């Protein structure tokens, strides 16, 4: 059970990293300078977060079957757009929510399957 919690934390870390990558990209674009300190700082945090979550994911893989735990990565398809809406003020439509429902159903079916 601990593996699932750590896996979910890894997915949250990866989703957070995606938001940070987008923020750094926006800062690079706004400044027009590849050496922009705020953008480089955000990018560095995102890369460190990815490194930590990768190590966590490797630990999870030591303890779990990949075919059982990997479907949790689909949570990032839910978390990233929701976070982008609230943090980056990006829009998404009603069809997206329908897709979220299908993703959640798929995750639940997969996690409850007997492989």
Number of helices: 5
- Report the major sheet: none
> Which class best fits the helix and strand makeup?
mainly alpha
Share in β-strands: under 5%
Oligomer: single chain
Tell me the Rg in angstroms: 16 Å
Number of strands: 0
Question: In the residues, how many domains can be counted?
Answer: 1
Work out the helicity level. Answer: over 70%
**Termini separation:** 17 Å
- Averaged pLDDT: 92
**N-to-C order of helices and strands:** HHHHH
Enumerate the spans where pLDDT stays under 50 for 5 or more consecutive residues: none
Which word captures the global form? flat
Pick out its properties.
mainly alpha; 115 residues; flat; 79% helix
Topology of this structure?
Elements: H1 2-31, H2 37-63, H3 66-69, H4 76-87, H5 94-111
Helix pairs in contact: 1-2, 1-4
What does this structure look like?
The protein is 79% helix and 0% strand. It has 115 residues and is mainly alpha-helical. The protein has one domain. Helix 1 (2-31) packs across helix 4 (76-87). The longest helix has 30 residues, at 2-31. The mean pLDDT is 92.
In brief, what are we looking at here?
With 115 residues, the chain is mostly helical. It has five helices and no strands. The two termini are 17 Å apart.
């Amino acid at each position: 059970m601990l593996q699932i919690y750590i896996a979910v934390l890894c997915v949250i870390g990866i989703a957070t990293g995606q938001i940070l990558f987008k923020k750094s990209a926006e800062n690079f674009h706004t400044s027009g300078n590849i050496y922009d300190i705020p953008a480089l700082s955000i990018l560095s945090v995102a890369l460190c977060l990815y490194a930590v979550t990768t190590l966590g994911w490797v630990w999870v893989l030591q303890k779990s079957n990949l075919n059982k735990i990997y479907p949790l990565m689909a949570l990032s398809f839910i978390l990233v757009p929701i976070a982008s809406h609230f943090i980056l003020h990006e829009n998404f439509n009603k069809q997206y929510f329908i897709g979220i429902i299908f993703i959640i159903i798929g995750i639940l079916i997969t996690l409850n399957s007997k492989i």
